[in-house]
Design brief:
Helix content is 81%, strand content 0%. By secondary structure, it is mostly helical. The longest helix has 28 residues.
Amino acid sequence: MKKALFLSLAVASIFISPALSLLLGVIFALTLGSEFDKYTSKASSYLLKIAVVGLGFGMNIIDSLQSSSEGIIFTIFSVVLVMFSGVLLSKYFGVGRKLGYLISSGTAICGGSAIAAIAPVIKSDSKETSMSLAVVFTLNAVAMLIFPTIGEILELTQQQFGMWAAIAIHDTSAVVGAAKMYGEEALQIATTVKLSRALWIIPLSIVSTFVFKAKDGEKGKISIPWFILLFVVAMTINTYFPINDVVSNILKSASHKILSLTLFFIGSTLSLTTIRSAGIKPILLGVTLWILISVVTLVVILVL
């Protein structure tokens, strides 16, 4: 019965907004449990990559790079600020070195994707990885629900909100979801800036192999986010070799529907048990880093 209801809600999420899909998943997890998370976690990872690549077919690479050129500076600044602050705050809150590093990586770059990429590099155990993911996914859900409202209260422009969401929200899915609720221009800017930010997974993975020396002199495995390169390829094709409008619209529509389904899956993993398992200290670290980057980025955007 529960499985049938879950599948029915998953299908229904395809036809509603990303925010409602996420909320629907959270409500299901809090009321009926998150026993399907072992299936949805892997599914949401693949679906997210497919959705992002599909969104690329609706974007012009030249316009996107021009609108997000300022984001490069913000990205460098934010990554350095968060990683440096994360190391200091981990010691202050008494959070383990690897756990603190994973939370900092997820906050600095792209949430769960960064954690998944960095975890094998620093040889973190499953408990440290799951705890860091729990913190990041919890804050992702909160960010996606409140950022559009804050943006409207502060009367942020589409460009300002897109930039802010791309840097201050952890996971790509939450960034795209929040930006989509705010507007199409915000969505394009946020997606491009966020994915250029996600490219920092590669240099951070390389640096991490030297920061965390594996036992017996063996270095960890570097995970490269190839879907980002496919996203760039999709934008390039749409810019220089435009496909039929009908096909393009179908791809964009399918991508948005896949995104809504992905957010339902992510929301369905956010049970109270998962949140409690993270413990108070990692949560304090994650919240502090999140507030730091959110406030600093917002102030810089408003000033400029």
